[in-house]
Amino acid sequence: MPTWISAILLPAVTTLFVGFVITPRLEARNKRINLAHQARDEFSRRVLTILSASARLRETPIPAALAEQRPALTERLNAERDRWVDQLDEATRYMVDNMETFALGYAPERARDIVGRFVAHSRAVMLSERAVETKAERLAALAGPVQNLFFTRRWRVLTIGRSFEEFERAVAVLDEDLSENTIMPAPTSAPQPTA
Predict the structure, then answer these.
(1) pLDDT at site 189
(2) Contact between residue 129 and residue 118 where contact means Cβ atoms under 8 Å apart
């Protein structure tokens, strides 16, 4: 085969191969990577929502004297606090419903475990019968270390190391909240055959 034909055919075949095989795979990969980054950004936004709404709830208690002196203001403040509680509820609900979109994007097993535990515990706190201030305190204690673990600069090794311990302490405190008088359902025994 003359060299001028191979000089024409080789680039043409290479162009076709890249156009029909390589480019579609790269485009699909880019789409998956973009979706993963969008999911992480949304997770970060929800964690920040939990931190900010919890801080607002903890920093704005309504004194009993204010309720007696200015009931209209108290009513407006209660409406604001209810709105912040709704933000917490919506953020935890979203995370539970969409956990697979952002949790599976983290490669280390420990990271996926922490995300799963954070999402489950934060939703459980919102569904619990704790006082609003206690819920806000517990959610902030859970979300603070998660914010540090997943969204701070990687060179802040000491902060990340402390955050693992802080997260475990926050989870342990949740267990202490449970009443000692909690009635656990008795295990059901297997039905016995009747003769």
Answers:
(1) 45
(2) no
